[in-house]
Amino acid sequence: MKECKKYKKEIVAFLSQELSEEKRNLLLAHLKQCPLCRQEFKELERVMKEAHSLQSGIDQAMASIDWGNLSRKITEFIYQKQTVPGKKD
Amino acid sequence: MRKKTAEEKVDIPLLLEKVKQGNREAFMTLTALYQKKVFLLAFSFFRNKEDALDIVQETFLRLYQKMDMFQTGKNFQNWLLQITKNICIDYYRKNYGKKSLYEGNRDLEGLPLMNNDNAFNSSDLKSIFSRCLQKLTSKQRMIFVMKHYNQLKYREIAQILNISLGTVKSLHFKAVQNLKNLISPYLGR
Fold it and tell me: A79 and B172: CB-CB below 8 Å?
C-alpha cells in the first residue's frame, strides 16, 4: 500500500510527460500487477482527457483576436509613452 | 523530432539587443512572438478576454521598462511569464481585490478565485470542468494551466513562480487529485 502511494504520484507525472524512462518502466511493471493502481490510472487519464475539453474555449477566445493588429497596437502605445527602453517616464 | 516553435527559430538575444538600441520593429517582432503565451497565462487567471488583453499590454510595457534587467543567458520566456504572473496579481488587487489585504504580498494563495466563466450555469462537461478548475487554489490552478495549456515543464513553472521543483510537483499532484475528486460525480465510473 505504501508502494501504491508512491505510484499514485508517479501516475500524474507519467500522464504529464514528466517521468524518466527508468521510473516509467517501474510504474508500468507495477500497473501490470496492481488492479487498484490500474483503476487510479484510468480515472486520472480521464481527468486529463477532460482537461483538453477546455482547450476549445481557450482556442475560441484566442481565435477572436487579431494578433497582427494587437502587436502593432501595443508597440505603438508603448513607443508613444516611452522613448528609451529600460527607462520609465 | 519535435518541430521548432516560432520563437525557437529566432535569435532572441539579438532581438533584445536591437530593442535596447531603440529598434521599434524588433520590439514588435518580440511582442508578436510572445503575446499568445502571455495571453494564455493571463486568461487562465482571469477567464476573461478583456482582462487578459489588458495584462498583455501591461506585460509588454513592463518588459520595455525593465529591458535592462534581463540577464543574458537566462530563459527569456520564463522571465517574461514571471512578469506576467506578477502583473496578474497586481491587476487583481487593483481591480477586484481589497487592497489592504494583499498589499505587498505577491503570494497567489492569498487571492480569491476569479469566476468570469460565461458558461457557469451550463451543465456540459466543459463548463463542469471549468467550474472544478475554479475551485482549486489559485496556485494549484495556475500550475495546472501552465502545465497542460501552456505546455511548460515542471522546472520552467518552478522558475516562473519562483518556487522549488518539489513544490511544483506536489501542487500539481494535489491539483490533479482535487480535480479528480471534484469531477468524478459527473463522469460516473
Answer: no
| pLDDT digits 0-9 by tens, A6-25 | 899 899 999 999 999 999 99
CA separation, residue A19 to residues A4, A7, A16, A25, B179 (Å):
16, 11, 8, 10, 21
Q: What residues of chain B score a pLDDT lower than 50?
A: 99-122
Which residues on chain B are in Cβ contact (under 8 Å) with A67?
32, 35-36
What mean pLDDT is reported for chain A? Answer: 87
Residue B122 CA to chain centroid, in angstroms? 26
- Count the neighbouring beta carbons within 10 Å of the beta carbon of residue A11: 23
Residue with cell 491539483: B175
Kindly state the DSSP code that residue A19 receives in the 8-state scheme: -
B97 in Cβ contact with B111 (< 8 Å):
yes
CA gap B44, B150 in Å, rounded = 10
Contact between A65 and B49 using a beta-carbon 8 Å cutoff: yes
**B70-111 pLDDT per residue, tens:** 888 888 998 999 999 899 989 988 887 654 333 444 444 444
Which among B2, B99, B89, B7 has a CA at the least distance from the CA of B41? B89
The answer to pTM > 0.80 is no
B-chain CB neighbours of A86 within 8 Å are 20, 64-69
Task: Give contacts of A44 with chain B, Cβ < 8 Å.
Answer: 176, 180
Q: Which of residues 43-82 of A touch B (CB under 8 A)?
A: 43-44, 46-48, 50-58, 61-62, 64-65, 67-68, 70-72, 74-75, 77-79, 81-82
Q: Is there a contact between A43 and B180 if contact means CB atoms under 8 Å apart?
A: yes
CA distance B156 to B147: 9
